[in-house]
Automatic annotation (TrEMBL):
Catalytic site: C76 (nucleophile), H164, E166
Record domain GMPS ATP-PPase: where: 191-381
Alphabetized Pfam families for the sequence: GATase (PF00117), GMP_synt_C (PF00958), NAD_synthase (PF02540)
Subunit structure of this chain's protein: Homodimer.
Membrane-spanning intervals of the chain: none
CDD domains: GATase1_GMP_Synthase, GMP_synthase_C
Name of the gene this protein is made from: guaA
Organism (species): Nibribacter koreensis
Residues the record lists as binding ATP: S218, G219, G220, V221, D222, S223, S224
Annotated metabolic or biological route of this protein: Purine metabolism; GMP biosynthesis; GMP from XMP (L-Gln route): step 1/1
Reaction it catalyzes: XMP + L-glutamine + ATP + H2O = GMP + L-glutamate + AMP + diphosphate + 2 H(+)
Its job: Catalyzes the synthesis of GMP from XMP.
Protein name: GMP synthase [glutamine-hydrolyzing]
Record key words, sorted: ATP-binding, Glutamine amidotransferase, GMP biosynthesis, Ligase, Nucleotide-binding, Purine biosynthesis
Length: 506
């Protein structure tokens, strides 16, 4: 495997994505928590960083266990760090170098740069530059303004590059990473979904043995794939719980429960709609609604988990970005639960945790799910928030409002599917606004609700743009909603991007 030491660059996860795309396994670890040396480690990549080696207290871990022992590739800050620590000089660039540049010198005999063409476009993003390299280094690539665009340490497999091969604007970045990972580190390209499933199922069998595992299904991709993997390992000893909180899409609970049963899962559907509606009654504040829903969910799940005698494990669909987030250079995020009051936790939270997807990125989870034969309708589903329609009904939530919104949402989503637009949109849904407006239907004046439709394109939900859905499509959806859903006489389309707006309205 490859170890990626994270110095806090926004691109660190991208490096890992690119290495995984080469079917090579890699792990990201913060530079200040380097894991113990393991025999399967074949090479190390040092990421970029928002820091500068010219600052006081710059990140400077001890790399001696690696340097000269294993191939090492420093990217941007990583390259500057090794150059400076080796006796070279790093200075502030006179201009901040940001954007596309072209290589004008490439040592094509160098193994890192094999098949990289002269004139190759690379992506630069740095404020410092390497002015002098140490005597035992050699320059292997340059651009017009950056002489040390890439270097090699003469008697070691240690390399530094000033540009970012992981960003697609570096058009031959993937070739460079392949040269490093496959040819220089000699990693075999056998990290595939099949191989992942085989080793994970074997590990789970060993880890869990004949114990019982409880797992909460949500209908989403991650919990479904996690359940199928654990199911392959331990079969009926996996007890799945799928809670109907009354805030799901129309027909979703029955439909998804059915798919789960078809997949052979031992799953119990729990109708807790009334408990959720009761807890939500009269609450209008978004955070209060979220808290109420979270609390009821924990109560229901705790109660159900007690019905499984002797359960020892809690299965979870945690994926790699969640793990990286919680151990990142910037420190654990504030949302990670503190374990100070273990006594006060619900009983199911005292179970040992098993997280079979914790090394996978989202698209890898989908690939694994596909290989496991999971229903494509589950794998390709848009993200849906845990509090469900409750945060799409602005103001207080009642079963009647949920029913109206379910119909509106159903027409919108069904139309997206029928017109082949569903997969082009990252997430879509409808909001029920606490506003009534005047309309006319036949000879009568109406005074009814307004709904807003929202569809966005995004990579990860952190930023998003509104989807430019065709006008004809929006016109048809609007007509169908107003004609079919009693109580709604006006439809608007949300054309805000995130930031400054958010995807949800609450
Ligand atoms: P925002 O509205 O913050 O949403 O742009 C970003 C993504 O997060 C989802 N979301 C939630 N998911 N519980 C969840 O499980 C929540 O309380 C919640 N709020 C927002 C939202 O659907 C979008 O995918």
């Amino acid at each position: 495997k490859i170890l990626i030491l994270d110095f806090g660059s926004q691109y660190t996860q991208l490096i890992a994505r690119r290495v995984r795309e080469l079917n090579v396994y890699c792990e990201i670890h913060p530079y200040n928590k380097i894991p113990a040396f393991s025999p399967d480690l074949k090479g190390v990549i040092l990421s970029g960083s928002p820091c500068s080696v010219r600052e006081k207290d710059y990140p400077n871990p001890d790399l001696t266990p690696f340097l000269g022992e294993l191939p090492v590739l420093g990217v941007c800050y990583g390259a500057q760090l090794m150059a400076q620590e080796g006796g070279g000089e790093v200075i502030a660039s006179t201009i901040r170098e940001y954007g596309r540049a072209k290589l004008n010198h490439v040592d094509q005999h160098n193994r890192l740069l094999k098949e990289i063409t002269m004139d190759s476009q690379v992506w630069m993003s740095h404020g410092d530059t390497i002015k002098h390299i140490p005597d035992n280094f050699e320059i292997i690539a340059s651009t017009e303004s950056v002489q040390v665009a890439a270097y090699k340490v003469k008697d070691q497999e240690t390399y530094g590059i000033q540009f970012h091969p992981e960003v697609t604007h570096s058009t031959e970045g993937k070739t460079l990473l392949r040269n490093f990972v496959v040819h220089i580190c000699d990693c075999s390209q056998d990290w595939t979904p099949d191989q992942f499933i085989e080793t994970t199922v074997a590990d789970l069998k060993e880890q869990i043995g004949t114990d019982k595992v409880i797992l909460g299904l949500s209908g989403g991709v991650d919990s479904s794939v996690a359940a199928m993997l654990i199911h392959q390992a331990i079969g009926k000893n996996l007890y799945c719980i799928f809670v109907d909180n009354g805030l799901l899409r129309r027909d979703e609970f029955e439909g998804v429960l059915h798919s789960y049963k078809d997949m052979g899962l031992n799953v119990k559907g729990v109708d807790a709609k009334d408990m959720f509606y009761t807890a939500l009654a009269g609450l209008s504040d978004p955070e209060e609604k979220r808290k109420a829903i979270g609390k009821v969910f924990i109560d229901v799940f705790d109660q159900e988990s007690h019905l499984v005698e002797d359960a020892k494990w809690l299965g979870q669909g945690t994926i790699y970005p969640d793990v990286i987030e919680s151990v990142s250079v910037k420190g654990p995020s504030a949302t990670i639960k503190s374990h100070h009051n273990v006594g006060g936790l619900p009983d199911f939270m005292k179970l040992k945790v098993v997280e079979p997807l914790k090394t996978l990125f989202k698209d890898e989870v989908r690939l694994v799910g596909k290989t496991l034969g999971i229903d494509p309708a589950i794998l390709g589903r848009h993200p849906f928030p845990g509090p469900g329609l409750a945060i799409r009904i602005l103001g207080d939530v009642t079963p009647e409002k949920v029913a109206i919104l379910q119909e509106v949402d159903h027409i919108f989503i069904k139309s997206l599917r029928n017109s082949g637009l569903y997969d082009q949109v990252w997430q879509a849904g409808a909001m029920l606004l606490p506003v009534q407006s005047v309309g006319v239907m036949g000879d009568e004046r109406t005074y009814e609700r307004v709904v807003a439709l929202r569809a966005v394109t995004s990579i990860d939900g952190m930023t998003a743009d509104w989807s430019h859905l065709p006008y004809e499509f929006l016109a048809d959806v609007s007509n169908e909603i107003i004609n079919k859903v009693r109580g709604v006489n006006r439809v608007v389309y949300d054309i805000s991007s995130k930031p400054p707006a958010t995807i949800e309205w609450e």
